[in-house]
Structures are given as C-alpha cells and as structure tokens.
Write a structure and sequence with these properties.
3 domains; zinc-finger; 286 residues; nucleic acid binding; 20% helix; alpha+beta; four-stranded antiparallel beta sheet; 6 helices; Alpha-Beta Plaits; 12 strands
C-alpha cells in the first residue's frame, strides 16, 4: 500500500540517525565525480550569485557579464568598453561581493538599446587582450530568488552510474529541481555517498517537500541519512532530529530518586533540600 507523504514525513522524523564514523587510521581520499549537471547550471549559478549579492532579483530583458576585478580599474570603465565594443546602454549596475566574500571578480548587469546589441553581448561579448567575456540572459519566469542547497546523502544502494542518476533524479525531484549530482569514490569504489545540488524554491510549476535528516528516496523505497546547511540538530542521546540533548523528551521523562523531580538523575540533582540517603557499599564481612 502506498504511503501518503504526511506518513512518510512522520516516519522519517521518528527514525534514528546513524552516528557518522570516520576513519581514524587513514587519510580520506574520496574523489567526487559529477555524474549529472544541467546544461544551464553555470548560468543559473552566476545569476544566483548576483541575486544573492544584491538580495533582490535581477531585471528582466537584461544581460549579465562577469569580469576579473583587475581588468577594469575603476570598475565603471567596464561601461565604457561595453558601449565601445557592443553599443549604447539604456542602463546598468555594477554588482560586487562584500569584502569578506570577495573572489577577485565582479559582475555587470546591463540593458542595451537594441535586440541586436543584446544578441551580440550573448554571442560575442567583448574582448580584452586575449580574453573574451560573454554575457548571459538574466530573464527568469519567477520573481523569487533561487534557493540552492547542497545535500549530502549516505547509505545510497550501489548501482551502475546511469541507473544511479535516473533513480536519484526520480527520488530527489520531490525536494527541489535537481541541478547537479556527484558521487564519491574511495580507491575508485562507490561507497554509497552522493551529493545533490537542489533548487528548492517553489514556483508556479512545482511545489517541493521540505528536507529531512532522514530523507525518503522513493526509487529505493527507503530512508537515508542527509546533511545540509540549515539542517535541524540531532540529539546525541536518542539520535533523532529536531532537538538537542538538553531538550530530549526521553531524558525529560527520567525521574530523580533524590528530589522525585524529572529531567535528571540523582547524581546531577541540584536540590540541596531533598532528603537522600547515599547507599552504603557492602563489604565481604557483612
């Protein structure tokens, strides 16, 4: 019988998350191999970085360039070169990362006066020395910012690469648009570890389920441990997600034999007024 998604979520929340074990006697040499990637991923990531820096969406019907910082000093010289090599600009803005995230590059969002100039920016771009810089379209069908999340999964069943890609895409489509898949090999052997880059932003075309620490992979009809930025905490006592050891409901139910309270044991009781007779150690003479 097929489970409802609410039942899947409830079951996943109750599962214990395996404690990760690391090799202490050898250095990890796992190698990541990209086994699937959207053709437009590089463009999506450039737009994603630009919108993250701006904290707002880019304009429609514009193009986006990315240049090395040292290519234009000051950066506004990029406008001069764009007008010189392509054509008149209707408008534009320079997009830079904050100082603590600077990567030696900056972006320029630009709108040209004609469609021909826009096409030229996409197909030919501009040339500076031996380098050629082409633009990409900023157009998107939605107003919300993309939410790119890298999800790491362990315990994936062993499959041939093409089968693995198909089953992962089928399983992860419930949680977001699958933009990239990577598998990790140790000494060229797949150990069941993969990572997926997901765009989890809901839009008019799709609505996605929230991620969990025990993620249901429908192609195998099982749950596997998942880790990702912003994931809920894992309790070190009961190994379930959603709370820490201090708030563990199992520990909260423990009864203290000294003060008769709950949430702790007599050894850690702080109630000095409670009567408690310390058990005497028995000896062989008794």
């Amino acid at each position: 019988m097929t489970m409802q998604w609410s039942e899947i979520v409830a079951k996943g929340m109750k599962l214990k998350i395996p404690t990760a074990t690391t090799r202490r006697d050898e250095k990890s040499t796992a190698v990541a191999t990209t086994i699937y990637e959207l053709e437009e991923l590089k463009s999506l990531m450039r737009v994603h970085r630009a919108e993250t820096m701006l904290e707002m969406s880019l304009h429609q019907n514009c193009v986006l360039f990315e240049f090395p910082t040292m290519e234009f000093v000051p950066k506004t010289d990029a406008y001069v070169e764009l007008k010189k090599q392509i054509g008149r600009l209707v408008g534009g803005r320079i997009i830079t990362a904050p100082p603590h995230k600077a990567n030696g590059k900056f972006m320029v969002e630009a709108k040209f006066a004609t469609e021909d100039h826009t096409e030229a920016a996409i197909s030919h771009g501009i040339t500076m020395g031996d380098a050629q810089y082409r633009a990409i379209y900023t157009g998107t069908s939605r107003d919300e910012l993309p939410k790119m999340i890298r999800v790491h999964l362990t315990g994936i069943p062993y499959e041939e690469e093409d089968v693995l890609v198909a089953k992962l895409k089928e399983s992860l489509k419930h949680y977001g648009k699958v933009c990239q898949l990577q598998m990790f090999r140790q000494s060229d052997v797949f150990e069941g570890k993969v990572s997926a880059l997901l765009d989890t932003q809901d839009d008019a075309m799709a609505s996605y389920e929230p991620l969990q620490r025990m993620l249901y992979v429908s192609a195998w009809e099982t749950f596997v441990p998942a880790s990702y930025k912003g994931a809920p905490p894992v309790c070190y006592h009961c190994h379930q997600s959603g709370h820490v050891k201090l708030d563990c409901p199992i520990l909260q139910a423990v009864k203290c034999f000294r003060c008769k309270g709950t949430g702790h044991i007599a050894r850690y009781c702080t109630n000095s007024d409670a009567d408690f007779d310390t058990p005497q150690k028995r000896t062989d003479q008794e």
